[in-house]
Amino acid sequence: xxxxxxxxxxxxxxxxxxxxxxxxxxxxxxxxxxxxxxxxxxxxxxxxxxxxxxxxxxxxxxxxxxxxxxxxxxxxxxxxxxxxxxxxxxxxxxxxxxxxxxxxxxxxxxxxxxxxxxxxxxxxxxxxxxxxxxxxxxxxxxxxxxxxxxxxxxxxxxxxxxxxxxxxxxxxxxxxxxxxxxxxxxxxxxxxxxxxxxxxxxxxxxxxxxxxxxxxxxxxxxxxxxxxxxxxxxxxxxxxxxxxxxxxxxxxxxxxxxxxxxxxxxxxxxxxxxxxxxxxxxxxxxxxxxxxxxxxxxxxxxxxxxxxxxxxxxxxxxxxxx
Length: 322
Description:
Layout: E1 6-11, E2 14-19, E3 24-28, H1 31-50, E4 60-64, H2 70-79, E5 83-87, E6 108-110, H3 113-121, H4 126-135, H5 139-153, E7 158-162, H6 170-176, E8 181-186, H7 189-199, H8 204-219, E9 227-231, H9 232-237, H10 239-250, H11 257-261, H12 291-294, H13 297-313
Parallel strand pairs: 4-7, 4-8, 5-7, 8-9
Antiparallel strand pairs: 1-2, 2-3, 3-6
């Protein structure tokens, strides 16, 4: 895990190392002093993140490309009477933001941005997050304890976690949570690329690359006992049959009322951005095939060159003649 450090001199024997990704500023009397303290913190973090721990829990883990419908699953799982689903916590893989859990003291300015965001998205306040950290000898144990606390506070018995990036860390997650049920959500990459393009400044080629890399990372695990994949298009076009199969896989009861009511649950503040509007209405199919209206001929040629074969392998096209 790479930690970006920007060193600045503030005055005589006064230096600061800025870790922008971690939201930290580390102070010292010399560049060497700052570097030594940063290295000490990063070494502690790596040891903690990689410490052995095997959980007996059976969490539901969701991953896949962003803009593929993972937030829809998050909302439905949280509406289930026995499930609480974490929202993009980054707790299941190596994450530089986790430095905020133990980087305190006169030499460190901690923005606590990650802690406050995570606490704002879950029923566990920052101080309780810190207290849980002091009880746990590894990241995996911390994740287990944090999510168990979330479930307990909601009066539910099972936890889940949805982060698109989970798809890149499945071997590591499975080593700590061997009883997990992983759901790989697939979606037509042309629609995903158009969706990314509509909410970001990414060039179209980068939108395609994000979809292709994350999708390939997931399908490499086909055949693992904990792996199951579902297409976004099936969730939206055939919701009853598809969600029944999904809940059978994870071992939870499914009732139609879940699909009739999930969007009525008040959305929290962190999901009030326009890009999340789709999870606050009944399941709909209007976003399927959006590429037909939104992709230019140049976009189509870019996609075919970068990921046309993958699109065919997944059954979204029979050839590159589209």
